[in-house]
Amino acid sequence: MFNKDRWREIIEVLTTNVWRTIFTAFGVCWGIFILIVLLAAGKGLENGIKQDFGNIATNTMFMWTRATTKGYEGLPKGRSFEFKISDVQALRDNVPNLRFISPRNQLGGFGGNNNVVRGIRTGAYNVYGDYPEIINQDPMAVTAGRFLNYNDIREKRKVAIIGQGVKSDLYDKDEDALGTYIKIQGVNFMVIGTYKKNNSGGGEEGQKEIFVPFTSFSQAFNRGEDVGWMAITANDGSSISQLKDNIVDVMKKRHKVHPEDTRAVGYFDLYEQYNRVESLFGALKAVAYIVGIMVLLSGIIGVSNIMLIVVKERTKEIGIRRALGEQPWSIKKQILMESIFLTLISGMVGIIFGSLVIFGINSLLDSVGPVDMFMSPSVSIGVVTGALTILMVSGLLAGFIPAQSAIRVRPIEALRAE
Amino acid sequence: MIEIKDLHKSYKMGSNSLHVLKGINFKVEEGELVAIMGSSGSGKSTLLNILGMLDGADSGEYTLDGVPIKNLSETKAAQYRNKFLGFIFQSFNLINYKSAAENVALPLYYQKVPRKERQEKAMQYLERVGLKPWAGHLPSELSGGQKQRVAIARAMAAEPKVLLADEPTGALDSKTSYEVMDLIQKINDEGNTILVVTHEEDIAHMCKRIVHLKDGLIVEDKKVEQVRAEQYV
Description:
Chain A is of the alpha+beta class.
């Protein structure tokens, strides 16, 4: 099939009319170029947005309490309640497939008053009472010292991990924060670590947080057994979106909330949001494929057209060859191979140009620094092989009608054509 | 070698049909050199096309070297053409982007002869028609007589049972015509069966037998004293 003579013939046929071949090839080249560039742009947007999610465990929900809206078991509506620390164990016992359950308490908040003092400097920060697991759900890089551990929890140590932003507010540039004390709402905590979050989503706010042990927080700020809110992450195999009804039901039962009260337990399903974004990218990708393939299609039709003309021009030659005893199938194969070869080569040129453009954009992005919502556009090798497969198939399709018309001509008629 | 019984062929021309061959009976033995003559429209080309399996007959029998030729699929016909027949055309019909040697090697390619052997054979046949030095030339670089000699070499390359020549000298001046006929006679001398369609008396008399066709019937079939073309060259 792939012998030297056939290849020579293909090259000869395609080079007889070089400009015609080039213009035909351009159609296919352009189509695949558009496809590659669109896919890469989609990927760039996806990378950019996902960068904003950072490496937050996305299979996560947040849950808090609100006033009840239905009376239940003799309790009035409009009643406020709090999650208790024992709820955590109850969730572990009743809901399978949960990976982390982090109860959290919080001081401060957006636009809060100054609540942290060090010497003559003050600042307003979010202060969290947390368990050590939180670092898996809200990842951060510990830049100095260490993060919380269970000894801190057990012994209710008054220790704190502060963000880069807090450190630059309260400390001099070269000052070492470890071992120093900061006063959080009048209570002294020793700084044992500093962190830096690398997701840009939290922005500056994310760097201005202070983490202290959950137990010390409760004691220092009079929270007793109360839990402000919880961050719950499911195991990798199961989705938190499916587990959340169960989780909320357990909470309602434990706090005597009417089962149909949809307001009392508030939650935010990060996974659902994430999936929504994911499906947006799926749609973007589909659009890129559709547009790319449509453009490619017009290129393919061009190839098919030219192949028809080539067959017409070579009618006599085909007649001679059949008179000399060439099998119809061999002629068909010849036309098909010419078509596939032309499509494949021009497609590869398109892929190369597309890659060059992507490469150019990437080096441009590198030189001007990060751009909002756009990061390292790229196409995977899978996409490239996919594109090549599309090309192969479309070359076959493009050659099919011309090849059919080539063998439909009877040799005697072909020979008569002058 | 060739046996034809009661061969009929008509072409449909719109509503009326044109009866071209009206019952041809005809036999060719091995080693014969037969001229088929007739004015245009007598059906000689149609007969040759049917003999060459390029066209099918409406009715009648055709046997080639003991093989009945009937209801062939295109694939089978191509195979038989390749194995049994060599064609020589009036307009040479060389493939113009292939060199002389490649043109000669073409039927061998369809027989799946290995490349090396193909090239050797092509050179051998080109030498026989005296064109070895022109092996690498394209048809456009050859004269009419040379082209026809390449075409003859190509027709012989597959070592067919029968050579069919359709007005082989029609596009040539008389000097080159005689050269070509001389070549055809020499090939015939080696025992090859050759059919030549022509309307030129002198060419016909260089064959050993003349078959006259008129209005789709054989009106005359005679053996003649062969005039050697050599003397005119």
